[in-house]
Amino acid sequence: MSGRSDASKILDDEFLQVRAKLLDLAGRLDRLGRAAGGLAGDDARLRQIHEAIRVLDAEGSVDRARRVQMIFSLPYDQAWRKKFGI
């Protein structure tokens, strides 16, 4: 046994993919920032993106995937079947 923790092994396996996704996200946010007219801070989509980034940045945070998913999700509506005629 190498003595390496599972977390270290996971980081070894995932680092380049995570790095690539972060670089992709940074590039997309840069394009938004440079775009003519820009997006105002009152754009709900941009607020969601920034809120999700804060969740990802929270040190020691757990359940990040669920929390980020909920930022982009609508609240559950028990009457959804009726609204869609199902």
Q: Overview of this structure, please?
A:
- By secondary structure, the chain is an all-alpha fold.
- It folds into two domains: 1-38; 39-74, no CATH class.
- Helix content is 64%, strand content 0%.
- The chain has four helices and no strands.
- α2 runs antiparallel to α3.
- The longest helix has 29 residues, at 6-34.
- The model has no long low-confidence stretch (mean pLDDT 89).
SSE arrangement:
Elements: H1 6-34, H2 44-57, H3 64-71, H4 80-83
Helix pairs in contact: 2-3
Primary descriptors:
single chain; 86 residues; mainly alpha; 2 domains; flat
Helix content: 55-70%
Would you report the number of β strands? 0
Beta fraction of the residues?
A: under 5%
End-to-end C-alpha gap: 56 Å
Instruction: Round the mean pLDDT to the nearest integer and report it.
Output: 89
Q: Main sheet, how many strands, which sense, barrel? A: none
Number of helices: 4
**Structure class:** mainly alpha
- Shape verdict: flat
Order of helices and strands: HHHH
Radius of gyration, CA atoms, in whole angstroms: 18 Å
As for the number of domains, it is: 2
- Low-confidence runs: none
